[in-house]
Please model this.
Amino acid sequence: MEGDELRRLVQETNYVTWRRQAGWEPLVMTRAEGSTFWDSQGRSYLDFSSQLMATNLGHGNPRVIEAIVEQARHLPYAAPGFTTEARGRLSEALGGVLPAGLRRYFFSTSGTEANEAALKIARLVTGRHKVVARYRSYHGATAGSISVTGDPRRKAIEPLQQVPGTVFAPDCYCYRCPFGLTYPSCGVACAEYVDYQLNHEPDVAAMILEPVVGTNGVIPPVPEYLPRIREITRDHGVLLIADEVMSAWGRIGEWFAVDRWKVVPDILTTAKGITGAYVPLGLTATTAAVHDTFRDRYFPHGHTYEAHPMTLGPAAVAIEEYRRLGLLEKSRRDGEYLLGRLREIQSRHPSVGEVRGIGLFAAVELVKDPATREPFNTEEDKLAGRPLVADQVAAAMLKEGVFCVSWISHLIVAPPLIVTREELDHGLEVLDRALAVADAKRAPAA
Model:
């Protein structure tokens, strides 16, 4: 099937996520290798956002691919009530990388499902139903996960798909501090507010957060934030769920983002990079204390593809590849270089309000005016389908052969961890040129 014919067929018959269905004009992606993918016209593109911040190992890793093939030959499926060699190998491998104490695993097929399991477990263990989440968060599309999501994807479906009980807290977002304060004199008010909430909000089972906010801005917290949140939740007997669907697997230069701040949550969820996104696997990891709640009690959760061997076998090999290729250390080194280069670019573009990041996980936030920090676009613009300046910058980059994810008012720079320095430089040069689109959209000086 030729490219145009394939595109028309898919346009006419498929749903596409998180957008109006009209006007979708997708590239036909035909193959990918390393940090590059190709379309049906044979044109190459630098994957500057790892597709959806997922292909951490890059495209086409031969060892992971061979593990998929071998697993398909050996045992392509087993019901979750059985155990398999793949299940045992991955359980052993996870014990060597997860934070100490997280040694009980539930395997699913996505980050959404991993969070769904975490929320259900937390509510069952505590006997409470409320969950503290944060406004600039995304935790998934299913009913429970979208209900603890703060971004506009929740607003688009509430109250039609709403699980009651979410209480939202402010984010650790110093560029737009919800209290109008300045770090460090703020006393990390965003964390202390959670203490205030838990003192006045009854029936809270858990707090769920992304240790480094992902889609909604790539926002690393200040050093004191996560340790203080861990202290507060523990003092109130509230479970802490760390959503590491994006921030794990070397993305910030650690196996898991919580490792950077030496925080161990009660439950950790992850997906995406656990297999390099080659096969769909989600993980919900808990402490033994959480797991022991169900030793003599019915565990009311599961699905047909739980612990699917086709997802588990490649994951154990993917973990070996992160080690063999030294990708955690590389992410730290390249992350410092990336942030330095982004700051140079910022100095040339008045439309860039802030660049921020950690490891190979960075954001470029676009503003009409750096002094007022007014964004070009808002969540309401996104939901209403209005043109977004960030999308226009990303489109200009795509024309030059660089794919970069945009979301409302920022761009996400998160290339595969195997990216070369030359590829990084190329992507940044294209970004530098494309930002002229945003510069031109700024209001003229009075």
Remarks:
- The longest helix spans residues 327-348.
